[in-house]
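FAQ: What does the model actually see?

It sees only this:
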Amino acid sequence: MPIDSSIRLGTQTSSPRVLLKRLREVMAVEEGAQQRLDHLTSAIANNMVADVCSIYLRRADDMLELFSTQGLNPDAVHNTRMQWSEGLVGYVARTAEPINLRDAPKHPSFSFRPEVGEELLNAFLGVPIIRTGQVLGVLVIQNKAVREYTEEEVEAAQIVATVLAEIVAAGDLLEEADAQEVDRVLHRHEHLMGAPIVAGIAIGTVALHEPPAPKHRVFADNVAEEIERLQTGLASLRKSIDEMIAANQDLATVSREVLEVYRLFAYDKGWARRLEDAVQSGLTAESAVEQVQGENRKRMRQAKDPYIRERMHDLDDLSRRLLRALGGDAYQAQLELPQDAVLLARSLGPAEILELDRNKLKGIVLGEGSDTSHAAIVARSLGIPLLGKCPSVIDKAEIGDRIIVDGGTGEIHLRPGSDIISSYEDKLAIYSEEQKAYAALRDLPAVTKDGTNIELFLNAGLAIDMPHLDATGAEGIGLFRTELQFLIGPQLPTAQEQETLYRSILDAAHDKPIVFRTADLGSDKAATYMKMSHEANPAMGWRGLRMSIDREGLLRPQLRALIAAAEGRELSILLPLVTTSDEIVQARAIIDKEIERRKRQDKPLPASIKLGAMIEIPSAAWRVEHIAPLVDFLSLGGNDLAQFFFAADRESDKLTGRYDPLHPAFLSFLKMIADKANLADKPICYCGEQAADPLMAMALMALDIQRLSVPASSIGPLKKMIRSIDLNDLVAWLEPRLQSSKQTLRDELLEYAYRHGVAL
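And it is asked to produce this:
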């Protein structure tokens, strides 16, 4: 008999905790799958004082079938099926979002099905049943009254839907044939699109950067034992945090305060009480952590205070640490990369990539990430295909799934069929043939059809990059990022450790020139041992040369190591993020101190020392004529320069791709810089990752920037392009278009290349 809909959840003793306890009791009864599902539906209806509760499940053909109901015509069960695009149930399934309606028949998506008997119903609450990003079905609550469900009722329905997703996926509610259909839905092929960042194809197995807890039971067999497990896990978590703080007594005040706040969260009695309440309702410790974690995320996202919202990250991290403590060895085993791993992560720092087993890592997909992020730079250096801007794949994938990643097109195939795998194996073979064709160009000069020589250099930052020098035929290293050595280790590298690295790099270059950029630290490039204070705008904060000048204890040992490693050879030092000419004067004075120090020690010096300035800030760009006389060469840091030119954070997913470096305004800006550098007779090199784009490289050449430093994988394609182009013709074509009001010249450059037979 339907329950009087005038009674509200808020006036009853019912609650999500009571409902979960009732669901656990139902699941404990030995009975048939349909009977158990019907009893669950009835329990939900009774707890939520609903006239109707229905569960629709998704079939492998995407039809939504009524599997159980309390309050509708029982004859409609397994006979009523709706298209994915049909009705309010289909709307919830398609959007994967709950819908709360006070008068459902007035909604444009409402579809009347006479066989179910819902003529007198008005209020409608539909919640998707989701697991690993897949909608498995829809939980529907309905009432005769015209009213909107309360926030507490919606939250209760979402909690129930989360539990239903787990037990439906486990097959405990379904007959074997139906369970197999659900399994096919969960493991169907998914074709997704991300942002292509590092070209290449990876065919492998999914690994998660933040793997979930190992598969676990939803409901507890023994509540007392689960409470004890939870308390043991909390004790272990708190102990690890205490030890972490004790081991870092020398941290700066701000850093210590951050850790202390983190510890307060770990010891928060309210958090622990909510976890224990969830276990008392009959959940396992792991399920309790996941449920409370979900509740915290929702509350934090709704908070107006940005500081409070940011604390969600602390609570998320604590929850993950607690799941690790509960999972023990089973969790740790999942952290090992499988063979041919494709790593899925929300975000990754450059050091995190370097810590991974590169023999097993074949590709990376990031939920965030841009083509100019430092993670992307490291991935390019390692030749690892990388995609960004695809958060949905993380929700849809499970550890061990087969996956194909195409870093050239941005395509992702999750759980592909044999035909797709075969197609990509063929594509991988073709890609390998292209690489062989590029290798054949290794010893040929990068000279245009009309005789202009373009110098192609490599970007590097690790010893493992050096073999690329011979393999590609590059003329040298145009940018060696020394900061990577600072980011990898657990502590600041000593001067001797730095000297050893730089000497090995110079030896491996076999007299080819190398430009060593002094450590460009700060912003997003900070190791765990560094005492970095919080900055509202770190990209424009204490970083690069300004940090090095303020902290001679960081810069002088590095200069000492470079001078010692280069004894008897040419040494080129590049200063990052130069803002004013005065900074160069200060830096040169520090270099002179180290030269004098070595002379006093009667130790050999480099054959020559050349100093360069990296132009990455508009203030420096506008005053190149003042900077050029103080240095021997100039480098353009295109990534930062474009970031500051467009006032668009290069790490922001919302802004990545919004402003094209092929914008006529930016190209005109670059031409001004190149003209000033050439007037001062100082060589200028473009070191931004943008130069790896053949169309951008074409534009730079036409702007009279004829030295490019790019990733190793770009040398072959760029050399092929250079040898197929008439530069004088391109210059004449580009010059009038620099005054264009268009947002980008990309399409026009592509058309030019096509019409003139340029090899892209």
